[in-house]
Amino acid sequence: MKSRFLLAINRAEFLTCREKQLVAELVDSEQFFLSLSVDDLSQIVGRILRATSWDPARFLHQAEQDVRYLERESIGTILVTDNAYPAQLGAIYDPPFLLHYRGTLPAWDRPLVAIVGTRSPSEQALLATRRLAESCAAAGIAVVSGLARGIDAAAHAGVVSAHGVTLAVLGSGIDVIYPQAHKALARGILANGGALVSEYPPRTAPTRYHFPERNRIISGLARAVVVAEAPIRSGALITAEYALEQGRDLFVLREGLDGDSGAGGRNLAADGSVMVSTAADIIADWVGGSAAPAAASATVTVVSADRRPAAAGRQLALELEAELKVGFK
């Protein structure tokens, strides 16, 4: 179990992963941590912070509660500096400082495919997503997604029905399942040897900006990302941008390209993303293309590491804010 000091550092959400690492390396005791002012913290991380939420005493108190909860619930925690931390995720821009997980993490050298898409899919794309996920499970490929409504849920459910391994990356604390209607699906994921994963402290409610943030983890864990169905302003396109930024293969689901709900996917296909329907299509591209997990199949302009997909992120955040007001209690 990680010390409460490290869990306290993770509660400073205004710090990047690298900045949290600096604090962990340079601050060698809880007393030192308690004595830090915002100005001290600014000196450590090398930029001026205006964080009115900096409260080390409160963070340590919350971290003590976290320690008790994580131990009681047998929830694991891995730091970005741990050997058990997935190397492919650690190599991305601003990887999570730590990951809490419930369940069984896969061997990180096995192939993982992310399946993402709209929360309001067509029936055709929904069924095709389940078939794709089932075929991935049959091929021994683990599937990662975000446990959201629509495409995410179909991807997880398809893997569970085929008794495969799937990871759900949460936009909330490890103990907060959102939407609540997916609690049974989360139990199915765990029962089949999968895992729930979160970078957020326990008891953290889903907020509108957590979901775009967690998308970098979904793509960061995967060798390839499949956009199953996505309208022009879909949050799934944020994940697609992260995938290209991170050098992942980017595919689109052949059956998810129709109508307005498939417009974003059609744009990706027009720019060079390969269309797939089954795991065999993905494997064929891997075998026929580069052996490295690079986005060789796509010619979309890669987003530089210091740019975030801001416009789509703001749009998704606004949509999620409205949904959270009525959907989370």
Short description:
With 329 residues, the protein is an alpha/beta fold.
C-alpha termini separation: 30 Å
Taken in chain order, the helices and strands follow as HHHHHEHEEHEHEHEHEHEHEHH
Q: The CATH topology of the largest domain, please? A: Rossmann fold
Main sheet properties? 9 strands, mixed
CATH architecture of the largest domain: 3-Layer(aba) Sandwich
The level 1 CATH classification of the largest domain is Alpha Beta
* Percent range of helical residues: 40-55%
Strands ordered across the widest β-sheet: 1-2-6-5-4-3-7-8-9
Oligomer category: single chain
Strand fraction: 5-15%
Q: How many discrete domains?
A: 2
Q: Give the overall average pLDDT.
A: 88
Low-confidence stretches: 290-314, 316-329
Instruction: Kindly name the structural category.
Output: alpha/beta
Keywords:
14 helices; alpha/beta; nine-stranded mixed sheet; globular; 9 strands
